[in-house]
Specification:
By secondary structure, the protein is of the alpha/beta class. 39% of the residues lie in helices and 17% in strands. It is built from 14 helices and 13 strands.
């Protein structure tokens, strides 16, 4: 039995500054279509508006049980940490980890412009705790969290619900057939967040999968270490592609389904999530939704995906809201 008082929990955030000219030049060397570097699909995955500062502050403010926060990136430093002297005083438990460190033994796959290889090797962060939380740089905690929101008796709390694979859902089959008629086959073979979850669940022999959403994931280092020692070929599948590839899988889903196989998990069907992706709605709607999110005590997580695509007036409001909430 684990005692929450004795548990050590770290947090890990992946981040990239896609606005960095040096990063763009490096990426262009590996793109078949150089012009695509300015496409919406690429920019929304790499561009950022320094939201990571508030992601970190939300953990510091609302998850006081977290020991260290590791930011994993490609030799870049977020703006709020660039003054090293000030950062060491304000953020003594926040550390920047280079891809070079976690890719030790796999440097042939660097540089990478793909979050999936990076996520697959997070467990190699030096001195990372056995139990850790993984978040993207656009995930925020809305209110105070406890260890038991993520681990109960050492078991990860998996937020999700059992869901059929696409080929077992009639309208997905119809949709797929329609796309086959109007598109070339290779254009359908794209990685997707849900597809990546299904891929690994099938590989592990499941007939259904637990569908995840954009929440902070509780993970165990030994789960990855033990699995990849037995199946190094599956690690290779996920880390060899510099850009997303349809054969890759969602790494958090791997961990979850391994825990399910061992009956070492707690299933929570409520995602406790407030999710933003479309910023085309009027400002009053956005303000109202954020106000409701703050009042709704059942909501623990906020994800604001693609903030770099948010119109300037709304972005100013959102960043002021984040600053007022977490500073």
């Amino acid at each position: 039995m684990y005692s929450s008082k004795d548990m050590v929990v770290d947090a890990v955030i992946t981040w990239v500054d896609g606005n960095d000219p040096a990063h763009k030049v490096k990426m262009e060397d590996y793109l078949e279509n150089k012009k695509s570097i300015n496409s919406k699909s690429i920019r929304m995955r790499f561009d950022q508006v320094n939201e990571i500062e508030f992601a970190v502050k939300s953990i510091i403010k609302h998850a006081k049980f977290v020991r260290n926060i590791f930011i994993v990136t490609a030799d870049q430093i977020p703006d709020f940490l660039k003054d090293k002297e000030e950062a060491s005083k304000k953020y003594p438990n926040v550390f920047v980890i280079s891809h070079d460190v976690i890719f030790e033994g796999y440097h042939q796959y660097l540089p990478t412009f793909n979050c999936l290889p990076i996520e697959s090797l997070l467990y190699k962060i030096p001195e990372l705790s056995e139990h850790f939380l993984y978040a993207n740089d656009d995930f925020f905690l809305l209110r105070e969290a406890k260890i038991s929101d993520f681990f109960i008796d050492g078991k990860p709390v998996i937020r999700g619900e059992w869901t059929s694979f696409y080929e077992d859902i009639w309208y997905k089959k119809v949709q797929s057939g329609f796309y086959n008629l109007i598109r070339k086959e290779d254009k359908i073979k794209k990685w997707g967040f849900k597809k990546g979850q299904q891929t690994i669940a099938k590989t592990l022999g499941f007939k259904k999968y637990v569908r995840l959403d954009h929440t902070i994931a509780p993970l165990k280092k030994s789960t990855y270490d033990n699995f990849y020692k037995k199946f190094p070929e599956l690690l290779d599948v996920n880390i060899k592609h510099k850009f997303r590839h349809h054969e890759q899988y969602t790494n958090q889903s791997l961990a979850n389904h391994l825990e399910i196989q061992k009956n070492n998990y707690i299933l929570k069907e409520d995602y406790q999530l407030v999710y933003f992706q479309n910023y085309n709605k009027p400002l009053w709607w956005l303000k109202n939704r954020l106000k409701k999110a703050e009042k709704d005590k059942s909501k623990l997580f906020l994800c604001m995906q693609g903030l770099d695509l948010c119109p300037q007036e709304k972005l100013i409001y959102i960043k002021n809201w984040l600053s007022n909430k977490y500073d």
